[in-house]
Amino acid sequence: MLKKLVMANRSYRRFYQDEKISTDTLRELVELARYSACGANLQPLKFVLINQPELSQKVFSRLGWAAALKNWPGPEQGERPAAYVVILRDHAIDRGFLKDDIVDHAIAAQSMLLGAVEKGFGGCMIGMVNRKGLSKDLGLGEQHEILLVVALGKPKETVQVDDLEPGASTNYWRDEQMVHHVPKRTLDELIVAEHGDEV
Amino acid sequence: MLKKLVMANRSYRRFYQDEKISTDTLRELVELARYSACGANLQPLKFVLINQPELSQKVFSRLGWAAALKNWPGPEQGERPAAYVVILRDHAIDRGFLKDDIVDHAIAAQSMLLGAVEKGFGGCMIGMVNRKGLSKDLGLGEQHEILLVVALGKPKETVQVDDLEPGASTNYWRDEQMVHHVPKRTLDELIVAEHGDEV
Hints:
Chains A, B: It comes from Dethiosulfatarculus sandiegensis. 2 copies of one chain form a homodimer. By secondary structure, the first copy, chain A, is of the alpha+beta class. Chain A has helices at about 1-10, 25-35, 55-60, 105-120, 130-135, 185-190; strands at about 45-50, 85-90, 120-125, 145-155, 160-165, 175, 180-185, 190-195. Chain A folds into 2 domains: about 1-155, NADH Oxidase; about 160-199, Single Sheet (putative fmn-dependent nitroreductase like fold), CATH 2.20.180. In chain A, helix 2 crosses helix 4 (about 105-120). The two termini of chain A are about 25 Å apart. The model of chain A has no long low-confidence stretch (mean pLDDT about 95).
């Protein structure tokens, strides 16, 4: 079951923009983040939920899309995300204890995206963010640092995972039918060693 | 469904050590990591699978356990993890392009732990690692940097999530029945703002 969900959870970048996602649904996704692991249980993550169309357009303009698709500036009007969850780090929480390189937001984002897929949506984690601009749009102060943006919507594209040929490029690409191809290293390439007694 | 899985996926630190996890099961977990998102699709993560008892003991001795439980040095013999997945970063892969602060390993670990829970196991992400020592135990060279260790087993403890009282400590604690309590901020505390049109 989970495997189906993980496989269906591709990084989607084109959506049916008019298929809205309710605030209640966004809250349910944050609830999944709330129950996900974090370093030392400090819970420094905070969240901003956005499905209001005008603000969504502003958020969109602060994001970088699919760096490997050189001639594609991102989804056009009508195919943009219907909602966003902006993941913040609250610097009022244990600034001294936590190192800079926390990974809590990645754990949270993975839980939220799997949850979105289960609900018939999908999305993409976006790290290429104009943080200063978005922070201003959202009226955030110095206390809240933007770590990651999760873009969400009803996916309008087919994403296909292909086995990566040894030595080939890992760049994703689009074919003539606009199918988005993602080459993934094979399982055997990922496993450096198995130290096992057979069970 | 996913919510049940996310809620059951607590950070477990005591296990039925004799309940083995097969290499095939560990490979299935890595397959979930393989299908999880990563920055720019570069896939710099590699994995070492360990369920061999003697080596597992060595791995155990390289890990820090539950920093907040000051009088508990970690699980005793008989309650230790039955298996480990060590997540590596392969520095032969795009050393130039990728920044130091990748979060791919956290995404991968979350997928693997959710998968473990679905299979009746559980575990814990451990970042407190004697990297030099473990690297030597595993015969790793400079190419492979240890990012995270995922400890796995059949959980032998009850973990209960409690709502965090405002202003109270986030430290987890154990009661007389050895139930492990984890105070979590409430959903309302996590959400800084909702910018929504009701749908």
